[in-house]
Design a protein that fits this description.
This protein is an alpha+beta fold. It contains 17 helices and 21 strands.
Length: 505
């Protein structure tokens, strides 16, 4: 408290004023109020005096300055007292720094509340909405007037079971908060995903309010779904890729085990597609792949799945069959759909397919086993004329093992010098005179076993070994014929059977 005369001079100050302002009583009694009041100057003092004198009593805010230069807000309660015919202003000043700071924080919180991009909902302890911010309206479509006094259940989408909400509230009660992804409903009825955080506000151990902060994650979910779709689907046909197919097969196998039924996997390979692709171009090849994908999809049941692992290969998962005959019927349907030409870019393209079928659980109980065995059956269909299907049999596995061993031996046979060239004479029609020879390759293993040409030549064609093998036969036959002609003074000709791959590149 302090007293000030008409000139603004302090005539009395109490101990509290001295302590708060930092000056001694003697120092303050030699000072004026406008040295302490940070918003007051000597020219303004006269107006202040008259204004306050006219009011008699007043309550106003000011800023006081301490000895060390610190300025702090005060609330001043002033009145006038007359002593000995002289008037004095009696002021009771109270430091309101804490209150001002609280007010500033409140204003800041109000700005944050009003300008936040996240929707904010405040409810009382009963769960009735007492406040929402503009972002709440922007996201949900509910105006504040429509929401106030209502329960947040007006936003419920019915996409979650009761157990979801029970678990949520159990967390809020136990931990005081919950965060997670939830589907809610806009005022228009549209369901949308949001990330929601709910906190309980407690006062003295008692929950007084709940604050929910949320933001719409629809766009993020769309992007996530797009990335997941791209990772699990073929870009050209939009069919499931090998990764997704394996996952679907795992689930289908688990389901089949529980219910005790069969399922089937059909591997499909387009016959001679590489020739079409190379001759007509990759763009035309892509269109043909898409057309084939549509045909196969249209031939299947709604519960079946067609996938494209890559290249010119498709796989069909038949999720529930009673007998392998069901898989055979589907295979026949697929082959039938290839009997019609494919109209692509103004052309009518004829395309056939070869199919291999494996059955769960007869031919395997894992995705890898079913795929491997269906592939074996597929290649047997190709070996036996294409444009057909084959069911997997255990003998196919044995044949594949024999074939793999034969291929490994074939690769080593050239290095070991196990190939021989035999010559079959060519005779003139008249006189039976020898006019030339035909060079024939034979494979004699180190063990002395002769491998029939029909076993190793097709294999050499497939794996590319026919090129070095053909080169060996040509070089050997030409050298042997030249030596024979020189020794016998003859002019014999030699013919060599060459693969078309010998002329490629």
């Amino acid at each position: 408290m302090y007293w000030v005369d008409r000139k603004g001079c302090f005539v009395y100050v109490n101990e509290t004023a001295c302590r708060v302002l930092g000056w001694s009583r003697e120092e303050l009694l030699g000072m004026t109020v406008f040295q302490v009041d940070a918003d007051l100057s000597e020219p303004l003092w006269g107006n202040r005096w008259e204004t306050l004198r006219g009011a008699g009593t007043a309550l106003y805010e000011a800023r006081h300055r301490t000895r060390d230069g610190r300025v702090f807000p005060v609330e001043v309660s002033a009145n006038f007292q007359s002593v000995g015919g002289e008037e004095f202003l009696v002021a009771f000043a109270r430091d309101v720094s804490e209150r001002k700071l609280a007010e500033q924080r409140l204003k800041l919180f109000e700005k944050v509340f009003e300008n936040a991009l996240e929707g904010i909902t405040v409810t009382d302890h009963r769960g009735d909405i007492v406040s929402v911010n503009p972002a709440f309206t922007l996201i949900t479509g509910f105006e504040a007037a429509e929401a106030l006094g209502k329960n947040p259940r007006i936003l419920k989408s019915d996409r979650h079971p009761p157990e979801f909400y029970k678990a949520m509230w159990a967390d809020i009660v136990k931990k005081g908060q919950w965060s997670g992804e939830i589907w809610n409903r806009r005022q228009s009825g549209e369901a949308y995903p949001e990330w929601l955080s709910i906190s309980a506000i407690r006062d003295g151990g008692r929950t007084t309010h709940y604050v929910a902060v949320f933001h719409d994650i629809s766009e993020m979910k769309r992007k996530e779904d797009k990335i997941l779709h791209q990772a699990s689907h073929d870009a050209l046909t939009n069919l499931p890729n090998r990764l997704l197919l394996a996952d679907l097969m795992e689930k289908a196998i688990s389901h089949a085990k529980r219910l005790g039924h069969k399922l089937a996997l059909i591997c499909i390979d387009l016959d001679n597609f590489k020739t079409v692709n190379d001759s007509l171009g990759h763009a035309m090849g892509d269109e043909l792949i898409k057309a084939a994908a549509r045909r196969i999809s249209e031939a299947l049941r709604a519960e079946d799945t067609v996938a494209r692992p890559g290249g010119d290969e498709f796989m069909v998962l038949l999720g529930e069959i009673a007998h392998e005959r069901d898989a055979v019927r589907v295979a026949d349907t697929i082959l039938d759909c290839f009997r019609r030409p494919f109209p692509v870019d103004g052309r009518e393209l004829v395309l056939t397919a070869s199919l291999g079928i494996s059955i769960f659980p007869d031919d395997g109980d894992t995705p890898d086993d079913l795929i491997k065995n269906a592939d074996m059956a597929l290649y047997r269909a190709k070996d036996q004329g294409r444009n057909s299907y084959r069911l997997f049999t255990p003998q196919m596995n044995e044949a594949v093992i024999r074939r793999l061993n034969l291929e490994a031996d074939l690769r080593r046979a050239l290095d070991r010098g196990e190939f021989l060239v035999h010559y079959q004479p060519r005779l003139a029609l008249l006189g039976a005179r020898t006019v030339g020879m035909e060079a024939l390759v034979r494979w004699k293993r180190e063990s002395g076993e002769l491998v029939p040409p029909m076993d190793f030549i097709p294999l050499a064609e497939e794996n590319g070994l026919v090129v070095p093998l053909g080169r060996f036969v040509m070089e050997t036959a030409c050298a042997r014929t030249a030596a024979l002609n020189a020794a016998l003074g003859l002019f014999l000709k030699v013919s060599v059977n060459l693969s078309a791959r010998q002329f490629a590149g």
